[in-house]
Amino acid sequence: MNRPRALLSLLYNYARANAQGALEYRASLISQAMGMLLNDVLWVVFWTAYFERFELPGWTREDVIALWAVLAASVGLANVLFGNAMRLATLIERGELDFYLTLPKPLLLHALISRMMLMSIGDLVFGPLSFGIYCHPGLREWLLFGLAMLTGAAILVSFLVIAGSLAFWLGRAQSIASQLFGVLINFSTYPTAIFGERVRLLLYTLVPAALIGTLPVELIKSARPVLAAELLGAAVLMMALAGLIFHRGLRRYESGNLIAMRE
User: Fold this and answer.
1) How far is Cα 108 from Cα 10, in angstroms, rounded to an integer?
2) What is the predicted pLDDT for the residue at 72?
3) Would the pTM count as exceeding 0.85?
């Protein structure tokens, strides 16, 4: 079996196993998913009311809803497929990576996909649904939305890996990782047009909120190939950086465990 096929098989088997486990508690899963869906809907109501009374230069109600749709779909996809990204720091703190070190699959990928947050299906449903209802997309817009969702999920997971990997150096870093993720999501929900130049620079670099919010909307509106290439390049760069930082930190984790074993 070739490597890509083996990885797809691994992902499928984990998804099936996690789904079977989650469906044993259907009522809880449905209520949580509906809660997330309702939260997203309330934001649409808020922005609809906002544009009835105010204006945002360069942005329409449909643009902001497209932003929320892309963000929700990206978060939903990231959490459903890579649920352990949110708790990577905890895995490192508790030494729970030991289990994955014994397995023949890629360590980081195996750790990320071994848990799914199926309640995020609410976000995953809300994204395409709101985009289709409010933005009236054609085939081109749907394709660009799909691209934005995939790159957004990749950037989100990569950011979580980088934040979670701080545990290799700081020890207990789960609270820091959670706060950093909260900052990323909060800034992603607003168009960068409302921020000053220095903040916008930050949102395209250290806290890449614009890459999962504003930039995808601009791509959907303009369909510029250069913009699509930039978004794809940013996603690939983030994944490479996340992998590099995680495996650099893993050296410290492994040496610590070897010392403990000798003692």
Assistant:
1) 13
2) 93
3) yes
Query: To the nearest 10°, the Cα dihedral for 114, 119, 120, 126?
Result: 150
Euclidean distance between CA atoms 43 and 56, whole angstroms: 16
Note the pLDDT of residue 88.
93
166-213 pLDDT, tens digit per residue, is: 999 988 888 999 999 999 999 998 888 888 888 888 888 899 999 999
Closest CA to 75 of 176, 186, 227, 164: 186
Terminal Cα distance for the chain, rounded:
41
Burial class (CB in 10 A: 0-12, 13-18, 19+), 31: exposed
Instruction: List all residues 6 or more positions away from 73 whose beta carbon is below 8 Å from its beta carbon.
Output: 123, 124, 126, 127, 128, 131, 145, 149, 152
What's the Cα-to-Cα distance from 8 to each of 13, 140, 186, 251, rounded to whole Å? 9, 27, 32, 27
Q: Which amino acid is at 19?
A: A
The token pair at 163 is 């934040």
- Extents of the domains making up the chain: 3-262
Please write the tens of the pLDDT for every residue from 54-71.
777 788 889 999 999 999
